[in-house]
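Students often ask why inverse folding is considered easier than folding. One informal answer: many sequences map to the same fold, so there is more than one right answer. In these notes we will look at a single instance of the problem. The structure comes first.
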């Protein structure tokens, strides 16, 4: 969580001029094993995930956590995005900039909750940029969504008043974790996003449709972690949704875990299981072209 775990905070400028924050956690010693780029959920931001990012850096992975435009530390056009394709291009441009230096390093893209939608869509939008995907409780098939009437109002507003704000239906901290300290952090987090524009929410719906095609074009290895006590994600439907992915699919489910694995106990096995999977990929991860 925020504090002394922020890593090195930098700014990246997208091709349309928007400047967004990201956190960089350099490897502690030795040559990097690869690069990890992480995308957060609709409500959260990179500050939630400092503990695991530091652990990835200690394990030998150059780690980057992007704050999505309009979220986290990014105050410009709060809660808004021109389109889901623009969000995908933000990620693609950032990854392309990383590959200008040491392009032979394997690059793994991780998506958490809503960020899992962007992660899964990227190989379809921009093939060949990443060598593997990690999806942590991805928001592909959520249990929690705006009521039908509000979805109609969002659609209408997206046409007539695209900047109109609507509440994100994930403002109860207990949806994310059972840990009291983490719940308190979420409740008092001044950077967490609680509202989004009609345009952003409409394009989130559109991204769901896009993903029905995109999932069939993901040929890289995919690691899926699910939490058995998740109140946000439909685990069974998520498994079914990803069953058509043509690349190798590894699934781990933790029966007692809650939605945000970051807030589980420090010795929870999710992190070590994922580290082992990354190590198992080894030379099996395709090397991107120079």
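Output (designed amino acids):
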């Amino acid at each position: 969580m925020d504090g002394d775990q922020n890593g090195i905070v930098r700014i990246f400028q997208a091709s349309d001029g928007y400047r967004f924050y990201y956190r960089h956690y350099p490897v502690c010693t030795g040559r990097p094993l690869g690069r990890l780029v992480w995308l957060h959920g609709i409500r959260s931001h990179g500050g939630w995930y400092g503990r695991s990012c530091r652990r990835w850096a200690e394990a030998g992975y150059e780690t980057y956590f992007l704050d999505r435009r309009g979220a986290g530390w990014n105050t410009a056009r709060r809660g808004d995005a021109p389109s889901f394709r623009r969000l995908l291009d933000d990620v693609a441009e950032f990854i392309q900039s990383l590959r200008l230096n040491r392009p032979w390093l394997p690059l793994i893209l991780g998506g958490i909750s809503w960020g899992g939608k962007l992660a899964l869509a990227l190989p379809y939008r921009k093939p060949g940029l990443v060598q593997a995907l990690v999806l942590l409780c991805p928001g592909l098939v959520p249990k929690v969504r705006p009521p039908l009437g509000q979805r109609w109002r969002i659609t209408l507003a997206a046409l007539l008043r695209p900047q109109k704000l609507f509440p994100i239906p994930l403002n109860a901290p207990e949806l994310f974790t059972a840990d009291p300290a983490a719940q308190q952090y979420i409740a008092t987090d001044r950077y967490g996003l609680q509202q989004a524009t009609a345009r952003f929410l409409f394009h989130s719906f559109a991204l769901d449709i896009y993903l029905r095609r995109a999932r069939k074009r993901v040929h890289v290895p995919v690691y899926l972690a699910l939490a058995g006590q998740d109140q946000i994600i439909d685990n069974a439907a998520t498994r079914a949704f990803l069953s058509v992915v043509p690349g190798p699919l590894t699934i781990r489910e933790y029966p007692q875990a809650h939605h945000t694995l970051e807030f589980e106990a420090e010795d929870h096995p999710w992190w070590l299981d994922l580290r082992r999977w990354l190590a198992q990929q080894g030379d099996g991860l395709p090397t991107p072209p120079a």
